[in-house]
Structure formats: structure tokens, C-alpha cells
Amino acid sequence: MVRLKQRELQILEFLLVQEEFMTYKNISEHLHLTERQVRYDINNIEKYLMKTDLDVIRKNPKKGIIVVEKADLKEKLQAFNQYTTIREYKYSKKEIQSFILLKLLVSDEIVPVAEFEDILFISRTTVLNNLSEIEEMLLIENLSLVHHTRKGFTISGPQVKKYNFFTRVLMELINIREIYSFVLNNDNVFSKQAELVLFNLLDLDILHQAFLECRDIEKYTGKVLDDRNYVLLLIVVMKILQENADWHFNDFIHQRQEQSEHGAFLLTIIENMSSHSDHKDDRTIEKYLAEIIDHISRAYHIDFYGNPAFISQLKAHIESMVKRVKQSIVVKNPIFHEFVSDYKELFLATKAACNNAENYLGITIGDQEISFIAVYFASEIRRQEDRKVKKARILIVCVEGLAISQMISTQIKKIFEYEEVKTLPVREFSKEHLNQYDFIITTVDLPDVQSSKILKVNNYLRKKDLEVLQQHLSLKLVMNEKNELDKFSLIMQTIRANTNITNLSKLELDLINILSKDEARAPKKDIPKIYFDESYITKKKDIPINRWDLAIKVGTRELIAKGLISENYEQKIITNLRKFGPYMVVAPGVMLAHAGMEDGVIQDSIWITILPNGIDINDRFEKPIKLIISLAFKSKDTHMLVENIAKLALDDEKVEKLIQLQSNREIYDLVSATLYS
């Protein structure tokens, strides 16, 4: 039988002994659940039962719910309980203590001892013994356990300390990926610990809504939070939504009315996240940062300034650290003892550097915070060591069709060192590929696979994408010791020392793109000829703005009529757009309509469709599509054509000129000049 959660089993067992219809309210009152929880669980129960061919639940809008054919269901449940139910799992002492602690930290009401007995299947004596040990833990955190006679227990202390402690305990007990998986993949968990905590402490509907609100908060602040702070934010927003189910962050931040305690706490978190800082504080932090980096650089003979992303991340961490320390927020590193044991010299060097630089900040930095800074240096040292000896095996995963993946492949091969670059459509990607490649570069979300190897990029690499890749891949021109461009790092150092440029990462990537243009030295390959002349161009004004499918068919119908593609190719383009969204829109107002070579390409060809009035496909650029380039390629070396087409699509001036040109001859001359440049 498909796995059921404990709360769902409880509801099923209750319904099995009822001889009449029960309303959601009846069930919630009997089982001490909310009606919302009951509705959600019963929907899940129905899905699970249908998968096992048990259609035994009947619903009546007025009467409620009843289980029919009880004998069959009882037999199934008996087998299920015998082998898979939570009752067969014995929780460890740490799991028991962590759950009790988490429940008390997040609860606003008194929690009775009986609740822990029922959920954990332990005796009252075991609960009380664990509470005694938990009381000692709380004292260290400046929190206190309060016993309410004949009622239960609560934890007393500032909310900021309670939620910070909750976040730390949660992340020590459960893998962070499981928390995200639970939110994103409809209650999907992989461990008994996650099942225990997430299904008994959190409401999935509220958690999912909180997750969406947290995205808006990140967008508002302009910063991407680390996992610890993100979980903290998630918990605070959940508490606000429990108080007011109609709450929305965008209304909250603009109204700025008198706030609840949780609302005030959220504003504090947002202030800490804010991209804007006092210029005086910013200069102080930059001095502190420079002092630490220079100290570690001298100790390890490594140029940390060569990775702007590292500098930026470390600075952001120190900014948050300073705010935490000033507000007396204590954060513990979950790997503190292991890290200090493995990297003792680096930790001591970082501690000495931090102590020397403390006069800039006017605060004292403890060992726990210092260890986080040392982790940043350890990661960067390891990255620089790895990139010197290892070239990456890269897999590019793209929605069906070679055009987009070929563009990305060409860009990566030009800029980065690599051992192997291969492409694969989404439909063929599996978890096994994680073992075969160092990095998976994807243009679409892969919700069923979570790995640090997966790097999400746009369908044509832009500066932000290149900055992300630069953190993981070795830049070709920096690392090639025999190349005359060896001095590139020294050039960048000179620029840093003599200018006030703020975005050095952008400058570095711009220079690399210029220096990569070595066509004058390398022999040019012949670009294959394709079916395309001035008759392969259509201007169409009468397409309704919301009929993007008709706009695509303008070009594909012509290619079908000429015997260059099959009807299946046209249908595949439209199906992919409906399934995966407007990923073929590579620039504002420009779409590259294509499918895979195996989907019906007969001869290499393109068709240009110009739509003066534009069509709307709800893409990220929010600009009407006025140029559709229909691509059908299958021959070797057509990737060079794809690269040139991409350059055309990204050239705003050329695109605008194409749309304005009147004659097909002029349009053909401009396009062909770009294709065969």
C-alpha cells in the first residue's frame, strides 16, 4: 500500500469506526485538528486509496464523509500498519528531544505532555525526563522552560532568540534539502525525522504560502538569503500567516501600519537583509574585510581578489554578522568542532586576522562567527586548488531542441576550461547523470533532482550567468600558462589598485569576451549553407496578439510546403512551448522557434517571420514578439549558424532595423550578412 502519514492514518482509523456521515468539523473536533488539516489529509487519503484500487470514500456536500466497504480497507490498513507505520520506528533520544524542543519553541500556546506521548509513542516519564535536559539547554540560550500545572509547558523568552534557536535545531535535525523538497514537491520527504517534524509541526498550505511570500521579500530586499536565514524568515512569515491568512508582504511593506510582534520582527529581518547600508558602516566593513583578506593572503600565498564573487559573498556575510552581533543574536556553526579539527591552522589564522581587525568595527567577534568566515576561506582555497588540476565535465540540459543548448555550449567552450561538454534534452536527463558529470547546466527547473552540481542559467548566457559559472569553472585565459594572455590577472590587479570601478566581475568578463576573439589567428571553418533566401521571409500584420501558435505556423507552414520539415516538427514546437513555457524567447521581442533534429528536420533551413503588431506569449521580457526565426538544423557545424543567429537576436539595433525594413531583399541581406560573418 502507498505510504500514509501518521495523521492520515489517524483520520482513516477514526472513519472506519463511524456508521454515519461525519463532517469536517466533527472530525476536527474529535481528533483535535483544524478543519483545514482534515480537508488536506482527506484529499491525500483519497489519492492514495485510488492508487491501490480502493474507491471507498464517499462525500456528501451536506452530510460529510463516510467510508464504505470497510472490510477491504481494514485488511489493507492492517498490513500497512504491520510493516510501515511510524509505530514500528523507534526514535532516538536526540530525535525525541529535538522534536519536543522544536514544538515548544514554535508554539504560542501551552503544549500538554500527552501530546508528546501520542506523537512520539513514549511514556509520560520519558517526556518529563527529556524536558529536564531541555531545560538545561534553554538556560545556555537565555531562555526558560515554564511548567503550567495540569496544563503543560511553554518556553519563555524573546521571540528573536526562540526562532533563531528553532532554526538552528531544525537544520541540525533535518537536511535543508528535505525542507525545500517538502515545500516544493507536495509533502515529499525522505527521512523519518523530516516526516515527524514537518507533518506534526507545520501546516503545508500555510508553509507553501509563506514560501511564495519569502520570494517577494527577497525580491524586495535585492538579496538572496543563505539557508539558515531563509528558514528563519520562513518561520516568521508562517507565524504571521497563522495570525492573518489574508496577509501579503507587498501590502504589508507599503502600508507600514502598526505591526504585531511577528510583523515587527519581520521588519527587523528585512532591515538586516537590506541592500542599502550606511556609507560609514560600509567603509568600515570594507577596511575590516581588506585586513582579513590581506592577512590570510600572506599566510597562504593566495590571491583571493582574483574571484570577485568570493569577495562579494564574504562581504555580504560580514555585513550580516555585524548586525547580528550588535543585536546580540547568537548563531552557532553546526560543523564548528569538525571544521576546527580539520582546519585548525586556517581557523587560527582567521581568528588572528579578525582580532587584529576588530578595532575597525568596535565589536568583539566570537569563535563561532569566526569559524563561518574561515569556512569561506577554506572553500575558496579548495576551489583554487581544484581548478588548477581538474577540468570539468559539463552536461547542458535543455528543453528539446539543439538550438538553445548549442548556443550555451559554444559560449562555455569559448570562455571556460573543460574536459567535456555535452548536451541533452530534459526528457533524457536522469539522476544517474549526476555521477557522470561535474556540473549540470540547465535552462529549466529540475524539481525532482536537487544537487549543488546543478547550475540554472538563462537560455543565452548573460553576465549574471557567466558570474555564476565563474565560481565553479576555470576561466580559460587566466589559467592557460603558455598563452600570451598570462598577464590577465596582473592587469586586473592593476585596475583594482588604480580605479574605483564597483563591478569588477562585469569588467573581467567583458575583457575575457574581447580577448577570446581570436578569429584572426585561428583558421575559420566553413559555415554550412542552408535553405534560405529572400523568399523565406514573411511579414504578417493580421495575427491576433494572443495567438502565438498562429504566428509560429506562419514560418513552419512554409517550411512544410517546401518539404524542409515535417508536420510533426511544427507540432513539437507548439507542444514544447505549452509544456515548458516561453523558453524560446531569447531576447526582448525575439523568438527562436525550434525543436529537435529527430523531430522532423528534412533539410537545414530557416524562415524569418516579422510581426509589426507583435504577439504576446507572457515571457520574462514582457515585450511583444515581433521577430520569429524558425530554425530547422540537423547537419554538422550548424552550431556556428546558431551562434550567429543568437548574436543577431541579442543585437537590439539590428532587430529593430529588421522589423522596420520594407523589402525582403533588404531583410535577407542583413540576416545573411550576420549568418555568414
Automatic annotation (TrEMBL):
The keyword Phosphoprotein does not apply. Residues 392-481 form the PTS EIIB type-2 domain. Pfam families: HTH_Mga, Mga, PRD, PTS_EIIA_2, PTS_IIB. InterPro entries: BglG_antiterminators (IPR050661), HTH_Mga_DNA-bd_dom (IPR013199), Mga_HTH (IPR007737), PRD (IPR011608), PRD_sf (IPR036634), PTrfase/Anion_transptr (IPR016152), PTS_EIIA_type-2_dom (IPR002178), PTS_EIIB-like_sf (IPR036095). Keywords: Activator, Repeat, Transcription, Transcription regulation, Transferase. Residues 280-387 form the PRD domain. PROSITE patterns: PRD_2, PTS_EIIA_TYPE_2, PTS_EIIB_TYPE_2. It comes from the Bacteria. PANTHER family: CRYPTIC BETA-GLUCOSIDE BGL OPERON ANTITERMINATOR (PTHR30185), TRANSCRIPTIONAL REGULATOR MANR (PTHR30185:SF12). This is BglG family transcription antiterminator. It comes from Bacillus salipaludis.
